Amino acid sequence: MTVPKEQIEQLLPKAFLKADLPLPGRHSGKVRDGFAFKQGNRLLVTTDRLSAFDRVLAAVPYKGQVLNQLSAWWFEHTLGIIPNHMISVPDPNAMLCREAQPFPVEVIVRGYITGVTSTALWYRYSLGEREIYGYTFPDGLRKNEALPAPIITPTTKGGPTGHDERLTCVEVVEKGLLDRQTWDQIQAAALALFRRGQEIANKAGLILVDTKYEFGSAPDGSILLIDEVHTPDSSRFWKLSSYEQLFLASKEPELFDKEFVRLAYAGIGYRGDGEPPALPAQTWVETSLLYQTIYEGLTGLPFSPGEYPVEERLVKNLRKAGLPL
Questions:
Q1: For residue 31, how many other CB atoms are within 10 A of its CB?
Q2: Closest CA to 227 of 48, 317, 100, 76
Q3: Is the peptide bond before 309 cis (omega within 30 degrees of 0)?
Q4: Which of 93, 190, 263, 302 registers the highest number of CB atoms within 10 A of its CB?
Q5: What is the pTM of this model?
Q6: Widest CA span in the chain
Q7: What is 237-281 written as a DSSP string?
Q8: What's the rounded Cα separation, in Å, for the pair 95 and 131?
Q9: pLDDT tens across 63-90, in order?
Q10: In this structure, what are the phi and psi dihedrals at residue 172, rounded to the nearest 5 degrees?
Q11: β partners of residue 206
Q12: What architecture does CATH give domain 5-100+281-320?
């Protein structure tokens, strides 16, 4: 069961912003704080930070728990496709992982032509481009239309500008980012993961529209699926039951992902330039509920909220799991 709105609102000031653990090798991304462990392992702690427009905008109660536990669920349910870096989940917000060297390519799989950012298919198509990411698209496509088959549209991770830069599948090898054999294995795994994701999402009444995968190399040279899988942060979801009717009416689909927050900002005229304006507390409460609902729908499991403050619980659970602090 999702957490009552009143409880979420009370927790807004206590949302989990940062993991302050007495561990070496700290590295912080937009959402996760990572720490080194002995024997080539790494602890990843998923905070409640929410990022969009290339910046952290807020901290949303239970968001970190959803991302961590949902990724863990997907890691378990995709082991037959490709190994991953997960070892254990000692806390609702933490995952002990095998150390892996991330590959310098983000693997985006798209099942629909949509999106408004500069790297999105529909944005490029709406500008008149027909050769996009190395694929040829016919005239007459409509926004949010399903592609004949999912495609891979890779990007660099950051690049010289600090932003993701578009690549074709051929360029990944031509530019020396990955060797042919490794890239072939990653492409096959990504498409298989996406098919599995679409199947499970459909059963939950959702459409997995597109997603981002990250892969890395284990010390033994094997390829591992890393980071997160099919979460509202890394994926675009639409509501299945209303999609066709809205598409035929040239209306936007019902969203079930982080785009909800971007649209809330767009509604008050903010699109990423300058200091972001404040959003009402109710927006962050609804965001928390959205993430919880997605978790329950995809996994078929009830969301069991962890205790707040997170830091105290986290330390207690890590010690209980025998991890040195």
A1: 22
A2: 100
A3: yes
A4: 93
A5: 0.94
A6: 59
A7: EEEHHHHHHHHHTT-PPPB-STHHHHHHHHTTT-SSSSSPPP--H
A8: 40
A9: 999 999 999 999 999 999 999 999 999 9
A10: -55, -40
A11: 239
A12: 2-Layer Sandwich (3.30)
